[in-house]
Amino acid sequence: MSTIFRTTLTPGKLDLVAAWIVNRPWYVRQDAAPELARAGGFRLDDPAGEVGIEFMHVVDTAGADPVVYHVPVTYRGAPPTGDDGSPTDGALIGRAEHGVLGTRWVYDGEHDPVLLSALAAFCNGAVQAQAQSETDTLDPSVRVEGVSGTVSVADLRIVHRLAAGPVPDGGGVSGTWTTPDGERLRGPLVVLR
C-alpha cells in the first residue's frame, strides 16, 4: 500500500489544480477564480511503486452554486519521456517540492497509463481502493458496480463533474464526497463505455 508522508508540498495540490482546472473543457466557468476545497478522494497503488496515484474530489465554491470535480492525478519523480505511452508536457499540471521525496511532476491522470491500468485492475477486482490520506487503510466507500466481464483501459471514462446518483447501465465506479454544507453524497466517478 502507498505510504502517505506527513510533510509539505509546495505549491500545494489545491493551488496546482486551481491554476490548471480553468483550462479544462469540463470546467464550469465562474465569475471569479476557482476557490477549491477538498471534498474527498482515494488512492490506488502503482504495482511498480514509482508513480503516486490519487483521485481527488474538490469543490469549487467561487460561484453561486458549488461544483464538485473529480480530478485524477499522478505524481512522478522525474518527467516521463512519453516513449512508453506515459504522459508528456501536454498533461502536466505542474511541479511541486515534496518535503521528503523532492521534486514531483504532477500529471493529469486521465492521460497516464499507470493510473489507467491501476483503475482497470480495480474494476476487475485485482486491487483495492485506499484511503486518500491514511497509510495502510482501505477505502470501502469506493465501489465497482454493475461490471460484467473484463474491463480494459479503453473501456474507462472518467466523470469530471460529480453528481449524486446511480452508476449508469454498463457499470463503473462509484464513490462519495462531501458538499460544502457537510452532506455526504454518492455518485459515479468512472463509467464504462
Descriptive account of the structure:
Helix content is 10%, strand content 35%. It is mainly beta. The chain has one domain (9-192). It has a seven-stranded antiparallel β-sheet with strand order 1-5-6-4-3-2-7. Strands 8-10-11-9 form a four-stranded antiparallel β-sheet, with helices on one face. The longest helix is centred in the middle third of the chain and has 11 residues, at 113-123. The mean pLDDT is 90.
Strand residue percentage: 35-45%
Cα distance spanning the termini? 29 Å
Uncertain residue segments: none
Q: Strands of the biggest beta sheet: in what spatial order?
A: 1-5-6-4-3-2-7
Radius of gyration based on Cα positions: 16 Å
**Basic shape:** globular
Helix proportion of residues, in percent? 10-25%
Q: How many strands?
A: 11
- The run of helices and strands is EHEEEEEHEEEEE
Q: Please report the number of helical segments.
A: 2
> What is the average of the pLDDT values?
90
- Helical/strand content category: mainly beta
Major sheet? 7 strands, antiparallel
The number of domains is 1
Keywords:
193 residues, mainly beta, seven-stranded antiparallel beta sheet, four-stranded antiparallel beta sheet, 11 strands, transferase
Concise summary:
By secondary structure, this protein is mostly beta strands. The protein contains two helices and eleven strands. It is globular and about 40 Å long.
Secondary structure layout:
Layout: E1 9-10, H1 13-21, E2 36-44, E3 52-60, E4 67-76, E5 92-98, E6 102-108, H2 113-123, E7 130-131, E8 143-145, E9 156-158, E10 172-178, E11 184-192
Protein name: Maltokinase N-terminal cap domain-containing protein
GO molecular function: ATP binding; kinase activity
Keywords: ATP-binding, Kinase, Nucleotide-binding, Transferase
